[in-house]
Amino acid sequence: TMSPMLTNIQQKLKQHLFKGYPNLCVEFDTKEFLDTVSKNVVYWRKQRGFSQLQLAVGMGYQSSSYIGRMELRKNGQHFNIEQLFKITKILDIHMDDLCTMRYDLP
Fold first, then answer.
1. R_g over Cα of the chain
2. Does the predicted TM-score (pTM) go above 0.85?
């Protein structure tokens, strides 16, 4: 778990390292954002007592393997906006619950 102070230092370091290379910065930030979203899906799914299979079925899938790949970000896979919308409805959470970095997650 990273403290807010360390996160701030990390952000300043990224700004310095990627100065003049905006595409690298966007790519790095996008990966970090997608990792955060996946971790939050896992967190909220477990908080609400859902298995991967229960969430998958609620979203219209037949098995949990798709959800598992998205949660692990296997091969860079990630949830799309439509899937995230369904997840927020099923788990009764807000989109910002999925998009906000939590400091209590590994």
1. 15
2. no
